[in-house]
Amino acid sequence: KLQAVLFDLDGVITDTAKYHFIAWKQMAEGIGITIDSEFNESLKGIDRMQSLERILIHGHQEQRYSQAEKEQLAQAKNDEYVALLASLAPEDAYPGIKELLQELKDNGVPAVIASASKNAPLILDALQLTDAFQAIADPQGIPGKPAPDIFLRGAGLVGADPSCCIGIEDAQAGIEAIKAAGMYAVGVGEQRILGPSGADWVLPSTSGLTLRQLLAAAHM
Ligand code: B16
Ligand code: MG
């Protein structure tokens, strides 16, 4: 029986992925590195410092900066990102999300955020969705996706057995994390991108997604 639904944030609840891309692109250009949307796909779900490492490797600059300089680069990116978030409003939640969260609440199924983002509480507040979630798993101090830790921490917060949980993700690393946690994995996006990472079910969008459909797909 279903005990919790764990939601990724960026790319599942709202399209902050586009703001991450703008902010990383700007930071990278500042140090002479060009990133395109295909490369950006490999950053989705990856935490801040790991994303920076990938960008530096992509630009053959992995040896160039000290730890302190890397922290400054990551800080500059985050400042730009947080500035872009100022325009975020409740209508920016993806189609179907509010309705699905309400249905979960009505049926007593806990909804939990399992995001790599340290900005998750800020984003949920801007979307006025904080109260829709029973818990937000803190990404501090645990290995990032594709490690299962953030999903296991999220399940633990509501006392759910991972094998009775459904995880919803937009990123390859996130799907791998859900599967490694032993949960049923729903991918939101393209089968071509999410299929190979092991998603159990891939949907083009959460528009119209219901609890009943989730239960049928996961055989719960
Ligand atoms: P922050 P998710 C992830 O969120 C993003 O997909 C990824 O692009 C970002 O670098 C990461 O959060 C860290 O975010 O810099 O705000 O701490 O998809 O796991 O919800
Ligand atoms: Mg995501």
List keywords for this structure.
44% helix; 6 strands; phosphoprotein; beta-phosphoglucomutase activity; single chain; globular; six-stranded parallel sheet; 220 residues; alpha/beta; Beta-phosphoglucomutase; binds 1,6-di-O-phosphono-beta-D-glucopyranose; binds magnesium ion; 10% strand
Q: What would you say this structure looks like, in words?
A:
There is one protein chain. 44% of the residues lie in helices and 10% in strands. It is an alpha/beta fold and 220 residues long. Strands 3-2-1-4-5-6 form a 6-stranded parallel sheet, with helices on both faces. The radius of gyration is 17 Å and the shape is globular. 1,6-di-O-phosphono-beta-D-glucopyranose (B16) is lined by residues 8-11, 20, 43-48, 51, 78, 115-119, 171.
Topology summary:
Blueprint: E1 4-7, H1 17-30, H2 37-41, H3 48-58, H4 67-85, H5 97-106, E2 111-113, H6 120-126, E3 135-136, H7 149-157, E4 165-169, H8 172-180, E5 184-188, H9 191-194, E6 201-203, H10 211-218
Parallel strand pairs: 1-2, 1-4, 2-3, 4-5, 5-6
Helix pairs in contact: 1-4
The chain binds 1,6-di-O-phosphono-beta-D-glucopyranose and magnesium ion.
1,6-di-O-phosphono-beta-D-glucopyranose is lined by residues 8-11, 20, 43-48, 51, 78, 115-119, 171.
